[in-house]
Amino acid sequence: MSIVFESDIKESVLVRTAERMMTAARTAPKAKGIDNLVISMVRGETIKILSDKLKELVQDGTGPDYFLRDANNILNSDAIIILGTKIKPLGIKYCGFCGYKNCEEKLEHPDSPCAMNTGDLGIAVGSAASVAMDERVDNRIMHSVGKAAVDLKLLSEDVKIAYGIPLYIGSKNVFFDRK
After folding, report:
1. Are 81 and 142 in contact, with CB atoms under 8 Å apart?
2. What is the DSSP letter of 8?
3. Alpha helices (H) along the chain
């Protein structure tokens, strides 16, 4: 007799879902077809490093109190997808959504976000989260995790804005009804 229990496949299902999320984010539409995204999956000790960074941000007064809640919450995750964007204006002649006259003027302010880059990131995050939803894998989009990843330079020195999507498979979604 052959029998496979859910507990035997949980980890492989979660990793497979995370991989599909990364693919969905990559193939999401990008302004002018220019891709400035950096997409990764973190597991194991790296989740603990992110959690520790969130706690540090609260302790030093940089981060808001809810970063502590998120720091403890992500320790329940077996994987976290981190999606970030480089800040590179796309050379759009008439935009100004970044607050500057044009992309040339924006280039004088390299740390100011380009609206097109952040828009592309948002679309990619939504695409990734929809895959988790389709697979019924519990998740939550967290800017706090993205901020910790940026501060740690996990994606690269060039990535200035990021979001994290922790994943969990269990009978209760640990990312909701939080204190």
Report:
1. no
2. H
3. 6-27, 45-59, 66-73, 103-106, 115-134, 143-152
Return d(Cα 38, Cα 26) in angstroms, integer: 9
Handedness of CA 123, 72, 174, 63 (dihedral sign): negative
> Greatest CA separation found in the chain?
70
Q: What residue type is assigned to position 153 of the chain?
A: K
How many other CB atoms are found less than 10 A from the CB of residue 140?
21
The total of other beta-carbon atoms located within 10 Å of residue 25's CB is: 23
The H-assigned helical ranges of 60-102 are 66-73
Per residue in 42-89, pLDDT (tens digit) is: 999 999 999 999 999 999 999 999 999 999 999 999 999 999 999 999
- Is residue 149 within 8 Å of residue 82, measured between CB atoms? yes
| Coil vs helix vs strand at 92 | coil
Cα angle for residues 64, 22, 168 (degrees, 5° grid): 60
3-class DSSP assignment, residue 22: helix
Question: What does the block give as tokens for 26?
Answer: 């990559």
SS3 label, residue 96: coil
CA 35 to CA 32: how far, in whole Å? Answer: 9
Q: pTM of the full predicted structure?
A: 0.94
**Are residues 53 and 151 in contact, defined by beta-carbon separation less than 8 angstroms?**
yes
